[in-house]
Amino acid sequence: FFFFFFQAEDGIRDVERSRGLGDVYKRQVSTQSTWGLLIRGDQMGKRTHKVGICGKFGTRYGASLRKMIKKFEESQHARYTCPFCGKTAIKRQAVGIWKCRGCQKLIAGGAWELTTAPALAVKATVHRLKKVKLGATKSKEDKEQNSQNKPQPIYFKKK
């Protein structure tokens, strides 16, 4: 006769199928006594502290790639401030399409963020060039106005 002993506590052979991501540690029961009451610690808690939204990948793909994906996905799901109405209500609808839930405006933006770094650089350049152009036209207008507003010399005619 052969006897096989299986330990269900190690998380290898369970009745329930493992969901990955360290199921063994999630199912461990911790007890704390508060004012004489015994509280079981098997309620759902915060599962991912460091990895956040990338907890769904488990230990796959490597830490560096998961950190990059975490940055992209957090910026993708974040809410942004609307430049039109000022509410923090802009959410991504599709790749490059962002919609404000306050004023219902559609904005073309980046794939992962509302505004990309190159877009900000172009916007700053356009703003600077507009300012330079307005300054040049204003200075011409100011010169013309100054020449018109200067008191003309008074000439006395001899009799």
What does the model show?
By secondary structure, the protein is of the alpha+beta class. It is built from three helices and six strands. The protein has helices at 23-27, 63-77, 117-149, and strands at 31-34, 37-40, 80-81, 88-94, 97-100, 106-108. A four-stranded antiparallel beta sheet has the order 3-4-5-6, with no helix packed on it. The protein is rod-shaped. The model has no long low-confidence stretch (mean pLDDT 76).
Topology:
Elements (H helix, E strand, L loop, with lengths): L22 H5 L3 E4 L2 E4 L22 H15 L2 E2 L6 E7 L2 E4 L5 E3 L8 H33 L10
Antiparallel strand pairs: 1-2, 3-4, 4-5, 5-6
Straight-line N-to-C gap: 147 Å
Instruction: Please give the count of helices.
Output: 3
Biggest sheet descriptor: 4 strands, antiparallel
**Strand content of the residues, in percent?**
15-25%
What general form does the structure show?
A: rod-shaped
Instruction: Write down the overall mean pLDDT.
Output: 76
Q: Which stretches are poorly predicted, pLDDT < 50 over at least 5 residues? A: none
- Written as H for each helix and E for each strand, in order along the chain, the element string is HEEHEEEEH
| Helix/strand structural class | alpha+beta
User: What strand order characterises the main sheet?
Assistant: 3-4-5-6
The overall strand count is 6
Q: Assign a percent range to the helix content.
A: 25-40%
